[in-house]
Write a structure and sequence with these properties.
Layout: H1 12-28, H2 36-49, H3 56-67, H4 70-91, H5 94-105, H6 111-126, H7 129-147, H8 151-168, H9 173-181, H10 186-211, H11 230-241, H12 245-263, H13 268-280, H14 283-301, H15 304-313, H16 319-337, H17 340-357, H18 362-377, H19 384-392, H20 397-401, H21 405-425
Helix pairs in contact: 1-2, 2-14, 3-14, 4-9, 4-12, 4-13, 4-14, 5-6, 6-7, 6-8, 6-11, 7-8, 7-19, 8-10, 8-18, 8-19, 9-17, 9-18, 10-18, 10-21, 11-12, 14-17, 15-17, 16-17, 16-18, 16-21, 17-18, 18-21
Length: 427
């Protein structure tokens, strides 16, 4: 960790970003009214115009160096492949087959429990909570309509299951960002994370079982093809086996493409188009990642991160305090930005400095970043996840919060893990 207190004024570009993004959300009652990319662009311009001690050309070069860091470029490659795999698998019917298979085998009294499991599996495979919720929200509403189960319960269940996968999936942008910013590997982070959130998932399933009322109707499921689920299963097995994420995703694209061609869902040209569309769908996230990398580097060069590090660690006297600092930092950033990926990308470099200084294992700091950002994201009523789910059911976002068990429980499990882990390593 660097000596000195750093510079408070160096954080001004970040303040500009928060004012633009959060301020516009409060004024318009829509936190996606101003595109986050626009807010980051303005903040980046402000950062480049600050600190006249250095020539503008030098600051641009420093910005480019930050955007072009090895970890960020690798992250970009992974985002590209993740987008291609998600689109290819969905285009050949993998999502529909997965949902319909689960609905066809679930008894009525386990519908909501099964809905959580389906959402968890699909988000694990797709790597996106938003995509999972958009896919399953109509099904959740349909189950509610056919059975009389509260739509707030079914939709909040989908959100919870989606956040489970978002937190663990090897192709989730939050997981990728956490792993890359903390310079650890996917397998170690997955294992560390899994054993922290598993109790939360089990407790959620128990709660859902007892909260699901008896129903007299049967939910009809459409046909499914078990072969179309194989790419998802293959990706999960390969990831757990420890295969490099780029190899896993490339293999998943190939596997899903071959099945799509064999089943007649694709021609060579339509497959190529789907892959291209999947890659294009990640363009905003990639640009955001590059710009945030450059912005953070300018703020770091001007002493902003050093100042934050001083403020957040000056009263830390233990690893528990350092872990709390990482958890609090990413949680507050997530509350401000309403996006867990942005929160991790923004807080990640500072969390890495804290972890290094207090000898916190990188896999643990990555786990803390991902757990607490996902917990916050699953609870904020102005986040994309709850907004999409509430809109599908014509409910207010706040209506879902009373059933948002999983995000609360993973935050609780994260807190317990901080204390238990430190107690275990003490002499």
């Amino acid at each position: 960790m660097e000596n000195g207190k750093g510079s408070l004024s160096a954080l001004f570009p970040f303040v500009v970003f928060l004012i633009l993004f959060v301020g516009s959300g409060i004024i318009t009652d829509d936190f996606y009214h101003l595109p986050v990319l626009s807010a980051v662009l303005v903040a980046s311009a402000v950062a480049l115009l600050m600190n006249r001690k250095f020539p503008f050309a030098d600051k641009v070069e420093r910005f480019a160096q930050g955007a072009g860091q090895r970890s960020i470029i690798i992250m970009v490659f992974i985002f590209l492949l993740a987008g291609a795999f998600g689109a290819t698998a969905k285009g050949m019917g993998a999502v529909d087959s997965t949902v319909n298979l689960a609905l066809s085998v679930l008894p009525e009294h386990l519908l909501v429990v099964g809905l959580f499991i389906i959402a968890a599996f699909i988000s694990l495979a797709m790597g996106t909570s938003v995509g999972t919720i958009a896919t399953l929200a109509p099904i959740a509403v349909g189950i509610s309509t056919q059975t009389g189960i509260s739509p707030a319960l079914t939709l909040a269940t989908v959100v919870g299951g989606a956040m489970f996968g978002d937190n663990l999936s090897i192709i989730s942008d939050t997981t990728i960002a956490a792993v890359r910013t903390q310079h650890t590997n996917m397998k170690d982070k997955f294992r560390t994370n899994f054993f922290i959130v598993l109790p939360a998932a089990i407790a959620t399933l128990i709660l859902l079982f007892f909260l699901t009322p008896s129903v007299a109707t049967t939910v009809e499921a459409a046909d499914f093809n078990i072969v179309k689920i194989l790419p998802y299963i293959g990706v999960l097995i390969a990831a757990l086996w420890g295969v490099h994420v780029i190899t896993v995703l490339a293999g998943g694209i190939f596997f899903a493409g071959v099945i799509g061609l064999w089943e007649g869902n694709y021609t060579i040209s339509s497959l190529a188009k789907t892959i291209s569309e999947g890659i294009s769908g990640m363009s905003e996230l990639i640009l955001l990642t590059l710009l945030i990398g450059g912005l953070v580097e300018i703020i770091r060069a001007n002493g902003g991160l050093q100042y934050l590090l001083y403020i957040t660690t000056k009263k830390i006297k233990s690893k528990i305090g350092a872990a709390w600092s990482i958890a609090g930092l990413v949680s507050l950033t997530n509350l401000a930005t309403a996006n867990n990926t942005i929160a991790i990308l923004t807080a990640g470099p500072l969390a890495k400095d804290i972890a290094d200084h207090y000898n916190i294992n990188p896999k643990q700091s990555a786990s803390l970043l991902d757990i607490f950002s996902c917990a916050v994201q699953g609870l904020i009523p102005y986040g994309a996840q709850i907004l999409i789910a509430s809109q599908a059911g014509n409910l207010t976002p706040v209506a879902l919060l009373s059933y948002s068990f999983y995000p609360l429980l993973i935050a609780l499990c994260g807190v317990i893990a901080i204390y238990v882990r430190q107690a275990r390593i003490r002499p």
